[in-house]
Design goal:
heterotrimer, A mainly alpha (135), B mainly alpha (115), C mainly alpha (498), B: 115 residues, mainly alpha, elongated, C: 498 residues, 21 helices
Chain lengths: 135, 115, 498
């Protein structure tokens, strides 16, 4: 079942959704948003693509296997806890950069942790959605 | 308000148990989801149903404006929702696989491992 | 250097995440799996040593002071459990090299196993009630996938029951945690314990205690909520069911012991008296269920339930000796029960079936396997000088001390029936003439060495604990002392602020 309306709409919607997911991700620092929400939006963008064009095509567009994304996300989350250990503080203590990055604000390990969450959510949701849609 | 809330939570729990006791696995999963919603609302009610300020420190202040709402139960619910989402996503994949391998969604037929 | 407390969580996480990146390379996965488990075991042993010599170790995650942040707390009891988790992780990783075929390994068996370990270690370490729930969920999601991994028909049938019952337990737990927060305004276990003393509404506290008992009771498979266990634990491959049988239910028992020695200690004449009855019923129903079973692993599954009864009994009697006995019992049982499941896997590998009626004659062809089965089986039944004897002795002695004669009688009777079940397996699988000579189903001896090494390792530990019961019991006694004096735990976590 392939619908022209859906697939052309998806071509427009998907980049917007991905952009919006990044927006939600970065906004999450001090306002509603964050890695989880951003990850869900990104995952729904790829899920929409999978519905419109088929799972095979969606996997090709994603390029990385969702389970690999899950693994990278876990590692990133883990790494975000380590800088504090080297500064001989307790594990997972937030460590912040001295200067601010223009347009982003202060970056620090919580942002890294959020990135990990983002990747884990995308990886997990897409693993589930793809395996449901495939068989 | 409290009474209405308590009634809703009670009805959700009752509905959840009713759905879980049905024989279809799909209804079992729906029942589990309702159980989760009821629990989340219960935790929400624990924070007291009042209209207070958000517990956010404004620029220049050192404490949130009194009286402020307790943010912890909301954080708990958020975590519980996230976990519930993951678990339910898995359960749906599981029941699909169960249906494919066992060939029925009737829990009374799925008893090959019981005796 | 309190960061070492986080290692039992960090190591499995790093192992699991690393393995998700090398999913295609089966050999590398096996190597990383074994190395990661060895690292976990080493960290756990170090942590136990530090706890034993220097007292309770506390790590305030993110430097948020207790009770506002999440504390990781390691006392001797947690330390013992972590070491056991490390042993199980290592032996299962070794055993799985031969037992878990390429298909399941490629799907991610090893990363799932280590995520499971992360959840288990997290549950043992956390000092925060809600965090405990989160670790339980981490553990459950990994175990859900593990039990269904491979997708054979009995596995799917077992999985649906396992998943449904455990999800209900989790939601009862989170509701109870929410109510505790409403009552005390805190989630830190030590802080909750302090505040709960001042709460006047005894009925509400009792209700919450019963909710906790129900939630952990389902997870620990106590009477009358154990039916999910024998319906699901015998379905996955032996390596998976061994780690489930050894560790998973014990996490429920751990949580029961933790909450009912630290938090709900105000009303023992009700809560702990109820636990005595539950323990007796659990012991009886488990062992009677096992008596009629004719499947190797189903007999063992029912025995998990009856043994859980002994542990809960140790908690319920609530004397220092009884608690130490319960800790010792967990220590002994995890090793022995996992070992029996490992042996069942080897039997299946040799003869292609778990059905006791079709098995037979194994002693004639494989004497060594008979010996390796006898050691954990006799230990489970409580024959001296193996570890099970000392574990049962401690619990029965503490029962006699407080003159709870009827429950001691039940415990002794159950011990006798355990011996009956073990001799039944022995007679059916090893001793009698086989019904048909060759293997019944698919059988192969390739890679058998990988399966025998962990069995020998665990059997050696059982014998070592039995012969050197004195030092092992000393550690358990230290754990018991800390558990019956919750003030030590509270002081360690909260420091000066109370």
């Amino acid at each position: 079942m392939k619908s022209i309306i859906l697939s052309s709409a998806t071509r427009l919607l998907m980049p917007l959704m991905l952009l919006f997911s990044l927006f939600a991700f970065f906004r999450g620092h001090n306002e509603p948003g964050g890695g989880f929400i951003g990850g869900l939006i990104a995952a729904s963008a790829f899920s929409l693509y999978a519905v419109a064009e088929g799972v095979e095509q969606a996997r090709r567009v994603l390029r990385i296997d969702p389970r690999t994304l899950l693994g990278i996300g876990l590692l990133v989350g883990l790494i975000s806890g380590l800088p504090s250990v080297f500064k001989s503080k307790a594990f997972m203590t937030g460590v912040w950069m001295e200067q601010t990055i223009p347009g982003l604000g202060k970056a620090g390990t919580p942002l890294l942790f959020d990135l990990g969450v983002f990747l884990v959510v995308v990886g997990f949701v897409l693993t589930v959605v793809f395996s449901l849609a495939e068989s | 308000m409290q009474v209405v809330f308590a009634a809703i939570i009670g009805m959700l729990y009752a509905g959840a148990v009713y759905m879980m006791l049905r024989r279809s696995i799909v209804k079992l999963i729906i029942g589990l989801a309702l159980f989760g919603h009821a629990t989340n609302l219960l935790i929400f009610a624990v924070a007291r149903l009042v209209r207070y300020n958000p517990a956010i420190v404004q620029k220049g202040d050192s404490a949130p404006i009194e009286p402020f709402a307790d943010p912890v139960p909301q954080a708990l619910i958020l975590t519980a929702i996230v976990i519930g989402f993951g678990v339910q996503a898995f359960s749906i994949v599981l029941i699909k696989r169960v249906y494919q391998t066992v060939g029925t969604d009737d829990l009374d037929q799925i008893r090959g491992t019981d005796s | 250097m309190t960061s070492i407390v986080s290692l039992p969580i960090v190591i499995p996480l790093a192992t699991a995440a690393g393995m998700l990146l090398v999913r295609r390379n089966i050999l590398l996965q096996r190597v990383i799996g074994v190395v990661g488990s060895a690292a976990l075991l080493a960290a756990a042993i170090k942590l136990l040593y530090v706890c034993y010599t220097e007292g309770i170790q506390v790590l305030q995650l993110g430097t948020w002071p207790a009770p506002f942040g999440i504390s990781l707390v390691c006392d001797v009891f947690s330390g013992i459990m972590l070491v056991l988790a490390g042993i199980m992780s290592l032996t299962t990783s070794l055993y799985a090299v031969a037992d878990i075929e390429r298909r399941r390994t490629a799907f991610g068996f090893y990363s799932l196993l280590h995520i499971l370990m992360m959840g288990i270690c997290g549950a043992f370490l956390t000092g925060d009630l809600f965090n405990l729930y989160v670790w339980f969920e981490v553990m459950l999601i990994a175990s859900f996938v593990l039990i269904a991994l491979g997708g054979e028909k009995p596995q799917m049938e077992g999985a649906i029951k396992y998943v449904a019952l455990n999800l209900i337990a989790s939601m009862i737990l989170v509701a109870a945690v929410g109510l505790v927060y409403g009552l005390t305004g805190s989630l830190n276990m030590a802080d909750v314990a302090v505040h709960l003393r001042d709460v006047r509404q005894e009925g509400v506290v009792l209700g919450i205690a019963i909710l906790f008992m129900a939630a952990f009771g389902i997870k620990a498979a106590v009477f009358p909520v154990f039916f999910w266990l024998p319906a699901s634990y015998h379905t996955p491959p032996a390596a998976i069911s061994a780690v489930f049988a050894g560790l998973l239910t014990k996490v429920g028992v751990y949580a029961l012991i933790r909450t009912f020695t630290l938090i709900f200690t105000e009303n023992p004449q009700l809560t702990h008296a109820a636990l005595v009855v539950i323990a007796a019923a659990t012991m009886l129903s488990g062992v009677l269920g096992a008596a009629v079973q004719m499947d190797f692993r189903r007999v063992l599954s029912f025995h998990i339930i009856s043994q859980i009864g002994y542990m809960v009994l140790g908690l319920a009697l609530f004397t220092p000796l009884a608690i130490a006995g319960a800790v010792f019992y967990i220590l002994h049982h995890i090793i022995v029960k996992a070992n029996l499941f490992f042996v069942s896997g080897v039997v299946h590998r040799l003869r292609g079936t778990y059905d006791l009626k079709k098995l037979g004659g194994l002693y004639a062809t494989h004497v060594w396997l008979g010996v390796l089965f006898m050691i954990p089986a006799m230990s489970l039944a409580g024959i001296p000088p193996l570890s099970g004897f000392w574990a049962k002795l401690a619990i029965i002695r503490s029962g006699l001390e407080i003159e709870a004669y009827w429950v001691v009688g039940v415990a002794l009777f159950v011990g006798l029936l355990t011996l009956y079940s073990m001799t039944k397996i022995w007679a059916e699988a090893f001793w009698k003439e086989p019904a048909s000579p060759g293997p019944i189903g698919y059988a192969s001896t390739s890679g058998l060495g990988w399966m025998v090494v962990p069995i020998v390792l665990l059997a050696a530990i059982t014998v070592a604990i039995g012969l050197g019961a004195e030092p092992a019991f000393e550690v358990a006694t230290k754990a018991g002392q800390e558990l019956v004096n919750p003030q030590i735990y509270i002081d360690a976590v909260l420091g000066g602020r109370q």
